[in-house]
Design brief:
The protein has helices at 15-25, 29-45, 55-62, 69-85, 87-90, 99-103, 137-151, 155-160, 173-178, 181-193, 211-218, 224-227, 237-241, 264-273, 275-283, and strands at 49-50, 108-110, 120-125, 162-167, 199-205, 230-234, 285-286. The chain is an alpha/beta fold and 291 residues long.
């Protein structure tokens, strides 16, 4: 069945993708079956947490952890801790409550195509395109969080990973003020500790001099692994093309594809289509009244 441009790929991975999983993630039918059973057993022993034990769900955590069940459980525990710490922000998260941020403001977008390595490419307009009075930094985070919940359902994304492009074109003091130290710490903690996706690269584009104020907020929280995957390109798109092939980029970033003419308005129905997964995710984490 052919996919619509604004939909995700939930079909089982084919032979080519499974070869990548075998090579990069240690995934074989035998390793997968053993790791799933080990993780189920560990979850049953963890009396303070609740997560689904369905195989498709457990693979969300096992793949980025290279099928080491104990590492996957530690990730689930970090996610539970993050949800607990940010309970007011993430409790009972609903796409419809963030619909206006999706459809009326072009802040977060996803390329309809993957890059040459099969990775999803997330675009975040952090500069003039973002009006913090219309979309607060908390709303921006919730939109990002909802998108990651849907992306984690794609086997191809679980295996190949994601790339984030941060476009700071036209950044001014009003955006800098919205990117507070608390927001910076929350976002970096989420990316490093509580996001069950393989983040392969972060590309920072079109950043003006004032961006140094933003970087000063984020830098103290960034560990070496993430720091090694962050690349600064300014206005030089040729530097970006060393990482993402121009044939997979829109003209907005010096690519061969047409300029972007879509955004959150087109992607919102896709997010809402997976409301069951989002609602289920809201129930996962630490059990109430368990210390």
């Amino acid at each position: 069945m052919s996919l619509k441009p604004f939909d995700i790929e939930v079909d089982a991975p084919g032979d080519e993708l499974m070869e990548i999983a075998r090579r990069e993630l240690r995934e074989t039918p035998e390793t997968r079956a053993q790791a799933v059973e080990e993780l189920r057993a560990l979850l049953r022993e963890a009396k303070d947490m609740h997560f689904s034990e369905e195989e498709a769900f457990l693979l969300i955590f096992l793949r980025p952890c290279h099928f080491y069940a104990e590492s996957a459980l530690k990730m689930m525990r970090r996610i539970a801790e993050f949800k607990k710490t940010n309970h007011p922000l993430l409790h009972a998260l609903k796409p419809e409550e963030e619909k206006l941020a999706f459809v009326e403001h072009n802040v977060v977008n996803v390329l309809t195509n993957r890059d040459q390595k099969g990775r999803r490419v997330l675009l975040v307009n952090c500069g003039a395109a973002w009006d913090p009075k219309a979309v607060s930094s908390e709303q921006l985070f919730r939109v990002f969080f909802l998108i990651h919940l849907v992306a984690q359902l794609e086997p191809a994304t679980q295996i190949n990973g994601v790339v984030v492009v941060l476009d700071f074109d036209g950044l001014s003091l009003k955006q800098v003020k919205a990117l507070s130290p608390s927001f910076s710490k929350r976002l970096i903690t989420f990316i490093q500790d509580a996001m069950p996706l393989r983040l392969k690269e972060v590309h920072i584009l079109k950043q003006p001099y004032i961006f140094n104020m933003v970087w000063a907020l984020f830098k103290p929280f960034i560990r070496e692994k993430l720091k090694s995957r962050i690349f600064f390109h300014g206005m030089d798109m040729r530097k970006l093309h060393k990482h993402i092939d121009p044939s997979d980029l829109p003209a907005n970033y010096g690519g061969d594809r047409p300029p972007i003419n879509y955004g959150g308005r087109e992607w919102y129905p896709c997010v809402y289509n997976y409301i069951d997964h989002i609602n289920q995710w809201n129930t996962f984490g630490f059990l109430p009244n368990v210390q």
